[in-house]
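Hey Z.,

So I finally got round to the zinc ion thing we talked about over coffee. Here's the setup:
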Amino acid sequence: MQKHIQGLHHVTSMATDALRNNAFFTKALGLRRIKKTVNFDVPEVYHLYYGDEVGTPGSVLTYFPFGQMPKGTRGTGEVGITEFAVPPSALTFWKERLAAFKVSDLTETDFLGERRLEFTGPDGDSFALVETDAAGRTAWTGTDVPSDVGILGFHGARFRLRDAAPTGELLSFMGYQQDETAGNVIRYRIDKGNGADTVDLEEVPDADHAHQGAGSVHHIAFAVADRAAQLEVRKALLDTGYQVTPVIDRDYFWAIYFRTPGGVLFEIATNEPGFDRDEDTAHLGSALKLPERYRPYRNQIEHKLPVLAD
Ligand code: ZN
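And the result:
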C-alpha cells in the first residue's frame, strides 16, 4: 500500500450558488473548468471540476453547488483548509488580485518556512495559496492570471482534529512520513508524490465537531495510478479493519471511500481514465456531460440547471 499513494487526487466541497462558484474559481483564481457534469445522486445539481489544463490528479477541486443550503460550521473532523501551490514570489500578485476581487479574510503568514496567503471562498470555504517550488507543474494559461504566478495545483490540505494520532497513523500506513511540527500542527508528507504532497494535522482537542454545509469540504481523495493499485490499497485497508466501499465508477476515475478515525471522509481515486475520455483537451469543461443513466433525461436536466459562463 505504501508505494501506491501519490498525493492528493481531488478535493470535493459543497456550495450554494453555481454561477458564483464558477466565477470565483475560473475568474478570480484563474483555474480551468475541466468538467461540467451533474451529481451522481442528484442530477439537478451540477458537479463542477476545476484544475489545471488537463485536470492533472493533485490539481482538481470539485464542487456541488446545491443552490439553497445552510452554511457549514467549522470545527473538528473535517478538512479545515484546502491549500493551493503557487510559484515562489507569487503572493505579491495574489494579494492585490484577491483584494481587487473583494475576497474576504486575506491573511499573509509564514508557516513551516513557507509564505502563505489565507483567504475565504464565496461560501465561507477556507483556502490558502502557498509559495512552493513548481516541481514540474504548470499553471493553466487560458486566463488573465500570468502563468508565472498561476496556481500549480494543490499544495496539500490541513485537517482539524480532536486527536491527531489515529489519523497520523493512517497516513503513515498510506505511505506518508511525519515531517515538521509547528505548535499544534503536525505535517505529513509523501515522497515522490504528484506535488500535492502534504497533509497537516491540526489538533484542537476542545473544539466542537464541524457540521457540514455550504463551504465545507465533503471529502478528500488520494491518487493511485490505476485500478490494480487501487485494489491493493482497498485490500490493505480492509485487512486493517477499515470499512471501505466497493469500487465505484465515477466516469473520470474509479473511487473507493472510507471514513477515517478523525472523522474526515477519504477517497482513493485512480489517475485513469482522466478527464479527456469524453472531451478533447481543447474543449474540456465546455459541454454538459451526463452520467450514462441520466442521458435519456438530458432535456429535463438541462432545463433545471442554471447557465454558466464559459
Ligand atoms: Zn471524490
